[in-house]
Amino acid sequence: MMFKNSTKLLCANFDKVWKLLVYHILSFAFCFGLLSIFYDFFVNCLVTAWNEANLAEIFSNGTFYGYSIADVLFGFTNAIFDFFSMIFLSNVGIGVYFCLVTFFLLPFLMNIGKYVIDEMMYGFMSYAQKQSFSGTYLRTLKKSTQFSIVKTIYSIPFNALIVLSIFGLAKVQNDIFNYFLPLAVAIVPSILFAFKQTFNAGWAPAMIVFDVNVFKAFSIGNRAMLRRGARVFSTSFVFYLLAIVLSLILGVYAIIIILPIAFPFSDIFEMTAFFSSQGMRFYADYDTILSPKKLEEVDKIENAKFIL
């Protein structure tokens, strides 16, 4: 039901897909502008790593077509490793600068956008009210900045684990394992992404709904999500599995279509899961109001003292 209700809300609020897409494009453009200071240096390292990994042949044959997942994954991971090796061996300062912009500033900006979408969804789900992206962005900037800083730092270990899992799969060179590699590439990251979302899904919604600080919101959000932890995890797993499988089947270019929808859908799902776990009524569209079970109907007796 969470997946179904999230899809309904996405369709009723599809304008947010375009607004968030424009914001993401501007965020990427801003970070690219900062990195362009060392444009020639980065391009030279990227071209060298690309050629050494022989990735040009992959795209000349139609992305993944004609190549096994094992070859593609091995080539991409080698190219990434070579790229960072060349940067840091040539200039440590530039390497640190690249990592700060790419792995902190960009996620920081993305998390601000996430908070804004959650705030807009709260207005729609509670009052069937539409809000402007720019107005909400400016109005919530203080709280969204606090949330984004803490969330970005908190997510680093999770993201590192996901990247390491992909690198680990790529390094397994075995003819028999290669037959199972597409399945592993789809399932392992999906499980890790689902765990990450389960323990983060209620964070921004709790901060918005209860108007508390970022640290108290984390506690409230986790407690809310764990009421329906299995359902939140399974829905997240199916969502990420579907996105990865479609990307593997349709090729890299499918990401251009999948990502703009995946980000707002993920945000909407988190708000849906939080409202449902709290037993809060909400608008699924302008004509439909859903009434989840109350807390006392879903909580165990020993958890009754935690009812918010």
Average pLDDT, all residues? 86
Roughly how many Å apart are the termini?
23 Å
Q: Record the strand order, biggest sheet.
A: 1-2
Characterize the overall form.
globular
Structural class: mainly alpha
Characteristic key phrases:
14 helices, two-stranded antiparallel ribbon, mainly alpha, disordered C terminus, 2% strand, 308 residues, globular
Task: Describe the overall structure.
There is one protein chain. With 308 residues, the protein is mainly α. The protein has helices at residues 2-12, 15-35, 39-52, 56-60, 69-90, 92-127, 133-139, 141-171, 175-198, 203-209, 214-227, 229-250, 255-278, 295-298; strands at 282-285, 288-290. Strands 1-2 form a two-stranded antiparallel sheet. Strand 1 (282-285) and strand 2 (288-290) form a beta hairpin. Residues 301-308 have low confidence and may be disordered.
